[in-house]
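step=encode ok
step=design start
structure_in=
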């Protein structure tokens, strides 16, 4: 299966997700993530996207 690209609507980080018979692989530039993201305490950009409810833009309150 070809890699899927997910771009965070908050910081613009590109996360590449690929799948094969043994599982999924997440690829990202850790240094770029640490410079861009305000939620580096989550230790992983995938968790950041999950915690913010996916890749949809945040709703203004």
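sequence_out=
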């Amino acid at each position: 299966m070809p890699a899927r690209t997910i771009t965070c609507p908050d910081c613009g980080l590109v996360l590449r997700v690929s799948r094969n018979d043994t599982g999924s692989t997440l690829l990202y530039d850790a240094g770029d993530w640490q410079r861009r993201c305000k939620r580096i305490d989550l230790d992983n950009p995938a968790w950041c996207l999950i915690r913010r409810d996916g890749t949809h833009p945040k709703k203004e309150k």
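step=design ok
step=annotate ok -> The helical segments are 30-36, 45-51.
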